[in-house]
Amino acid sequence: MRRERVLSWVLGWLALLAWEAAVTLNHTSPLVLPAPSAVGQTLWQGLTSGYLWPHIAATLTEVVLGLLLGASMGFFGGVLLGESLRWQRVLMPYVVISQVVPKLALAPLFIVWFGFGTLPTVVMTALICFFPLLENTMTCLQQVGTQQLELFRTLRASRWQTLWHLKIPLGLPSILAGLRVAVVLAWVGAVVGEFMGGSQGLGALIIAAQGSMDTALMFAVLTLITVLGLVSYKLTHSLTRACLPPSKDF
Description:
Blueprint: H1 2-26, H2 36-48, H3 53-83, H4 85-100, H5 103-114, H6 118-141, H7 146-154, H8 159-197, H9 202-211, H10 215-243
Helix pairs in contact: 2-10, 3-4, 3-6, 3-8, 3-9, 5-6, 5-8, 6-8, 8-9, 8-10, 9-10
């Protein structure tokens, strides 16, 4: 595992060195493709001066609120659809429709309905990240073994007891996998929402940098979003490992 991690870091540094060399040797304009050193300098200046921190806080707030809302909707919706075949047949087509409609097409409507600011971005983030929780929860509840269900019926367990003491514990790895996917998609939803109607946040800062032709700032913000997304994914991965029993192969 350590060798693989070292190899991963080496590949990353080699890619950055190749990028730096290509920009320097080809005399590429910074407006087209800035060097990694210029991007790093812009990022460092933005962090040390405090310019980036309000935007980071705004995007992070939208990600957390949207993830909480979307994950809650996805989990409880997955339980409802997983426990009731009738409701699954009625509601699942509309759930799929909510996902196949392009979110960029819905963004102007969210602005009309909810105004500018945090709320439409939170709604879009929740809409994007709730589906992995719903799909994984619904699927794992329907894949419990027949023998295990028969055992609980023999013990005269209620439907509620069967759900919380059998189905959810057995499906926990799948549910937590959906949560990890939702964490990644939450950043996508927040940034896309800020593209359309945000006055503050990392997505809005990218649009502002594009308008001022500050390509180095655009790359710096993209780097920051990438790092924050990776950190949040790693934290969620560690949390899910801690929630699973040691005997699980996770």
